[in-house]
Structures are given as structure tokens and as C-alpha cells.
Amino acid sequence: LTFRVPNIQREGQARLARAFAGILSAAYTAHELKLHTPPLFEVIHPMTTSAQELITLQRKFNETAQFQQKILESKHLKPEHLDIIPLIEGTGTLLKSRRILEKYVDFMEKMNGKRPRMIRPFIARSDPALDGGFIAAVLSAKAALSEYFHFQKDTGIKVKPIIGAGSLRFRGGLSPQTIDEFITTYPGVATVTLQSSFRYDHPLDEVKKAVAKLNRRLGNVDPVLLTAKEMQQIARLDAIFVKYYRKTIEGLEGFINQMARFIPARRERMQHTGHFGYSRQVGKAGLNLPRAITFTAIFYSLGLPPELIGMGRGLRASRQAGLLGPLEKLYPELREAIVGVGRYFNRENLEILSRRFPLFKFVKTGVQYIESYLGEKLGPREPEDFIHRNYTSNVLQNWLRERSPEEDIVKSAQIRRSLG
To answer: How far apart are CA 174 and CA 218, in angstroms?
Structure first.
């Protein structure tokens, strides 16, 4: 069991006290029963943006543990410190996350007299994509993996990176059919978190084989260590793609939130207060978007995969900046990914929406540039792709007629084996 503790900079401290109480009471009970102790020793710290957040969490836990030892008159209770998994959820923060680890390790050495033996940095894929778009999220994850293994090489502290990925490429692209592409895209990753569509929307035998394959391959692929020049190129590419993605999404806030009410809820989640909600880099203050699953489902249900948003103009700007070659070298799986995403593209829906919403015209011209870059048209290829297109046409037509499109949203999700 691994707790996700609250980030007190974003979510307040009340739930943190409950988490600490659970960890320490479990340790006390295990000690009394002569079971392995501590049973809970590792926590995930979400929305990490600085080493100071990890340091504050570690200090607060240590103070709480010492207080418990005093109350119970026992100096032998563990843990006194936590193994913290920093979950990093923004493209800009991922690019500088090596420095976060370095500062945190320096603190732990001063506090504890020794450095951690291992760190498991957690790379988010959903929220960086929601925040900055598909290509920026992929590149920042690749950069973070490289930085972690540079950190391992320099310090001798082992890193075992985690990636949290959904089945659709916008949110990571990890499904039973895409394991090879995923591991090639993110070499060096040691652990993945499997989301519900991977487990429940594919035949059981297929899922078992896929899990076995992941267990064989994860941690057995050599990481790709990027040079300082390549890191600079990624930073420049990140700025380009984030700019064009956000320009479009900011202007579609109202439309996105109108559609969100038709996406069926699949689980309870606390509202995410980060990214567009607080990011100073976003031009429109207070932008409020649904969570990543709902956001992704909206665009896929319309036959407009969100991977395409900002991509075309980003590719054009990259070419103009002399960065298209470096992009293809850094992300050699790019063409394969675009073609895979393009199977779910509904050209007629984009034409209709571009007549009603001016910002969709930018998506339309972006798609034209993507097709020019590929040298082929986006659109359905297999029979089920055409069925998916038909359902997405129904979604838009029902919405335009002020009828609920939820039935066709679910049917389209069943075709692609993932809601969002």
C-alpha cells in the first residue's frame, strides 16, 4: 500500500495529519504483533515543483514520529523518515527535476547522516499533456528520464523511475497492444501504473500476456542519456508546442466545460487545483478545465484526438526554428504515434466545428500541416475505425440538436477501448 499524501502547498494540511496517523499507527500495531515493520514506509507526493516541498514533508513526518515515540515512550518505533516518491506533473518542472532530486538528497544527508539508497521519481503523463499538449509531455518525460540517470551516474544513488500512463497516447499510450512502442519511447522506466482501461477493456488472456511482457521488459532497457545541447533543444521545443496548444485550449474553455457534463464519471477524484487553475504561464487567469480523463474523452468522442491540438502549428514553428530534425531524433516514434492517433480523426466534425468556433480553424489548418508533414491523410483505416467515426458524428449531431450524446460517447469509447 502506497499513500498519496496531499501537497500542502496546494491541498491544505488536514489530510496530511490523517495520513501520518495511519502510517504510524500501522507501524505501532505491526511492532506489537511482531510483524514486519514498518508496513508503510513510502508515500507519493503529488504536484511536486520544488525540493523544498519534499523537505517540508520529511520534516513534518519526522517531527510527528518523534512526538509519537515520546507519547508511547518507545524510541524503537519506525519509520522516523519516509521514502518519498516525488510525482512531477508539469512539463517545465520535469525538465528541471534532476535539480529537485539533488537538493533533496543534500537535505537528507544533512538530516540523516546518509543519503537515500534509491529514489523512485514518478513522471506523470496525463497532467503534463493536459497542461502543455502531447508532444511537450512526451519530450519532457524523455528529458526527465535522461536527467534521472545522469543523477544516478553522478551520485551513485539508484533511480527507479515510474511513469503513470493511460491507454490513449495523449495520456501515455500504454495498452496491451502498444507495450513495445511505450518502452521504446520511455527507455529506462522501471515501473508503470496500469489504469482501468488496460485491465478491464481488453480480453483477460491478452491482459495477462501484456502484464507478463511488462514484467519482463521494464527496467531491462538501457536509458538514453541526452546531451546538454539536446536538453536545450527540448526546452525550446517545449516552449513552442506549449504555446500553440495553450492558445487553442484557453479559447475553448467554455465549449470544453459544456461537453464535460456528458462524459460519464468512472471514478471519484478530488478536483485538481493545479495546472491551468494556478499556472502563471497561462495567459487567461483562472482557467478551469475538467480532469485529464474527461478532457481526453471529450475530444476523442468528437473524433478530434487532443494530440492534434497545437501539433501542426508546433511542427511548422519547429521547422522554421531549425528544430524539426532534432525533434525527429529525440522522438523517433513521432510519425508512428501521429498515424495511430489519426485513425480516430473525424474530418467532417472538425469542418462543422470550425464554422461555429473560430479557434477550431487553427486546429483545421494544423491538421493540414500535419498531413503535409506525414505525406498522407489522417483518418480511419480499419473497419472499426469507421464505426468509431460514425459514433463521433452522432455525438456532435446530438449535441448540436441539444440532445444528450452520452450513449454514443460510451459506444465510441468501447471501440477504442478507453473512455479518456
So the answer is: 13
Grid look-up 543534500 returns: 106
Domains of the chain: 3-217 (3.20.20), 228-416 (no CATH)
DSSP labels, 36-52: -S-S--EEEETT---HH
Q: Is 188 exposed, middle or buried (0-12, 13-18, 19+ CB in 10 A)?
A: buried
Q: List CB contacts of 283: < 8 A, sequence separation 6 or more.
A: 246, 247, 250
Cα torsion 13, 19, 22, 24 to 10°: value is -80
CA–CA distances in Å: residue 163 to residues 126, 144, 289, 354:
10, 11, 23, 35
> With the C-alpha atoms ordered 373, 376, 382, 384, is the resulting torsion angle positive or negative?
positive
- According to DSSP, residue 376 is labeled S
Distance CA 195, CA 326 (A): 32
Query: Does pTM top 0.85 for this prediction?
Result: yes
Burial string for 370-407 (b: 16+ CB within 10 Å, else e) reads bbebeeeebbbeeeebeebbbbbbbbbebbeeeeebee
Q: Within 13 Å and on the Cβ side, how many CA atoms surround 341? A: 28
pLDDT tens figures, 153-209: 999 999 999 999 999 999 999 999 999 999 999 999 999 999 999 999 999 999 999
Assess whether pLDDT exceeds 70 at residue 286: no
Spell out the residues 6+ positions from residue 30 whose beta carbon is closer than 8 angstroms to its own.
Answer: 36, 37, 38, 39
